[in-house]
Amino acid sequence: FAMHGVKRKTAAERDVEKEKAKLAAAAKFNDVANLILKHKKDGKRDEEALQLTMKALEINPEFYSAWNFRREILRDRLKRAMEEESHEGKKEGGEGREGGGGREEARGDEEEKKTGEGRSEMKKLLGKELELLAGGIERNAKAYCLWTHRLWTVDQLLALEDEEVLSKELSLCDSFLRADERNFHCWDYRLAIARRRQLTVEEELKFTTTKVNANFSNYSAWHHRSRFLSAMAAPQKGGGGEE
C-alpha cells in the first residue's frame, strides 16, 4: 500500500535494512575495539582512549576489556592529579620555610587551597563519570558491568572524602526501582551502597516495607528484606542461656 505517494516497505525489506544496520554497528564496534586494544598495548591512556572506550561501550555495554581499560585511564588521571598536588605542596612548603614564619604560614594556606582545588577537579571528573553511567543505565538497566563500574566510581569518590555521594546514590536507586521494581542489579547495588552508608537494619526494613506495600508480590523486595531479617536474627544465636 502507498500513503501520500510513498510506497510502504515490505516486511522483507525492513528485515534487510535491520540486518544492514546490525552489520554496520558490528563493523563500527570492531574498528573501535581494535583501536582500544592498540591504545592499551601502547600504554596510551589519553583523552582519545577515554572517548574510544565510551564509543565502544555505547554499542556494547558488556565489553569487559573496555571497562577495565577505562578504569586504568581514570586511575592514571587520579594518580597524576594526586602527584601534582603533592609536588606543588612540597614546592610551596619549601619556599615558605625559606621566607620565615609569616611567609611559611601564608604558603601553608596556599598549599591547602591547592589541595582543595586538586580534589575538586578529581571529584568533577568522577562526577561526570557517574552522569555518563546514569545515561547508560537508563538505556540498559540490567547490564552488570555498568553497575560494577558505578560502584567503583563511588569508591573513588569516597576515597576523596565525598560522603554526599552515598545519599545521592540511594536516591538514584529509588528512582530506578520505581521504573523496574524487580531489577536485581539495582537491588544488589543498593545493598552495597547501604553498607557503605552504614544504614541500620531497621532503616532498610522500612524501605523494603514501602516496596512490599506497593506490590505484595515484589519478590526482589522480599528477598532483599529477608537478607536483613537474617542479619537481625544472627546476633541472637550466640546469646547463651539468657532468655
TrEMBL record:
Keyword set, alphabetical order: Prenyltransferase, Repeat, Transferase
GO cellular component, as recorded: Rab-protein geranylgeranyltransferase complex
Enzyme type, top EC level: transferase
GO MF terms, alphabetically ordered: Rab geranylgeranyltransferase activity
Presence of the UniProt keyword Transferase in the record: yes
EC number(s) reported in the record: 2.5.1.60
GO biological process, one term: prenylation
Catalytic activity: geranylgeranyl diphosphate + L-cysteinyl-[protein] = S-geranylgeranyl-L-cysteinyl-[protein] + diphosphate
Pfam families given in the database record: PPTA (PF01239)
Region (Disordered): 83-120
Statement: the UniProt record of this protein carries the keyword Amino-acid biosynthesis: no
Database matches in Gene3D superfamilies: Protein prenylyltransferase
Family label: Belongs to the protein prenyltransferase subunit alpha family.
Known function: Catalyzes the transfer of a geranyl-geranyl moiety from geranyl-geranyl pyrophosphate to cysteines occuring in specific C-terminal amino acid sequences.
Name of the featured protein: Geranylgeranyl transferase type-2 subunit alpha
Organism: Guillardia theta
